[in-house]
Amino acid sequence: MSEVRFGILGCANIARKVARAIALAPNATLYAIASRSIQKAEKFAAENSLPASVRVYGSYDEVVEDSGVDAVYLPLPTSLHVRWAVTAASKKKHVLVEKPAALDVAELDRILEACESNGVQFMDGAMWLHHPRTAHMEHLLSDSNSNGIGTVHFIHSTSTMPTTQEFLENNIRVKPELDALGALGDLAWYCIGASLWAKGYKLPTTVTALPDTTRNAGGVTLSISASLQWDQPNKTVANIHCSFLSHTSMDLAICGSNGSINLKDFIIPYKETSAKFDFTFGAKFVDLHIGWNVRPEEVHVDNKLPQEALMVQEFARLVASIKDCGSQPSRNWPEISRKTQLVVDAVKKSLDLGCKPVVL
C-alpha cells in the first residue's frame, strides 16, 4: 500500500517525538509542518534536521489545504482541537490528535462526527497502547486464558511528574484558556485509559473524584485522585492518582482472582527497544506466613520500533487501507477515545459537585 504523507500542525515539544516517529515508521513520511509563524516552523525544521523535501508553512491553513497531505497530527493545545480537527476532516485529512482528545465529550463528538461524515480515520496519541508489551499483557487479561490473572478485581495506576515554578506559572497545560483540564487531561487520560483497557472498555458504574485535589488560581487541576467502580459483570475498583507535583511515576497494577500484573513504566518504557512487566500467578503465603510460594515472573517484550513509531505505523496502515482499498475507517480507536473522554468528564463533574459519585 502507498506511503501516508503527514502534516504536523504546531511545533510543540511532543511534535519533535512524533516527527521522529513518522521518519521511523516504514509506511509514513513527513510531508509538511506548520506553525503560527514561518520563523517558528523554519526553526523547528532546522533544530530537528528535517529533510529539505518537507514543506514548511507559516499557518495551519496551508497544511490542511495542501493536496499532498493525507493525514494531520495535532500537537496543539486542547482548546484548539475542535477547530483544527474538524477543519482537517472537512478537507479529507485523517486526524491523529494529541491527548486529551478534547475538553469534553461534546467537543469530541463534533470531531468524531466530522471524521465519520468525511470518511477519515481518527486516533488519539496514547502511544502505550501500541507497544507489543500491551498486547502481551492483554492476553493475560483474557477470560479464555486459564493461565491468566482471572477476573479483574482491583486496578491501581499513577501518572505523576515533577515540575518547576516556571512550568506551574507559564506552561500551556496549566492555562485555563488553553488546556483547562490540566493534569486531569494530560496525565489522567493515561490512567483512565489503562483502567478501561483492563476492563475490556466496559464503562464504570460510578466515578468519584477524591478530596485531595489541588487546583491553581485559574481553576486548573494540578493534582487529582479518583476512584472508578464497576458493578457488572463483576465488582471492580480502580484507583488513579495524577499530579504535576510529585516525583515521576507511571505505575500500573492489575489484580485478579488468579494472579496479578505489575509495571512501573506503563506510559513510557524505561528502554526504547524493550519493556518488561511482572506477572504473578497462583501466589500464596507459605506456612507461618514467612514468605511466598512463588516469585513474580519478569516477562520481557522486545520491539523493533519505538511505541510512537508503532502508533504512526498502525494509523498509517488504516489510512492507506481507506485510500487504496476503499476500506471503512476503524471504529475501534474513536470508541476508545470517546469512552476515555466520558470518564474524564465524569471525574471533572464529581470534582465540581464536591467529590460526589457520578453515575455513568
Automatic annotation (TrEMBL):
InterPro entries: Gfo/Idh/MocA-like_OxRdtase_N, GFO_IDH_MocA-like_dom, NAD(P)-bd_dom_sf. It comes from the Eukaryota. GO terms for molecular function: nucleotide binding. Residues 146-261 form the GFO/IDH/MocA-like oxidoreductase domain. Belongs to the Gfo/Idh/MocA family. Residues 4-123 form the Gfo/Idh/MocA-like oxidoreductase N-terminal domain. It comes from Cicer arietinum. This is Uncharacterized oxidoreductase At4g09670-like. Gene3D superfamilies: Dihydrodipicolinate Reductase, domain 2, NAD(P)-binding Rossmann-like Domain. Signal peptide: none annotated.
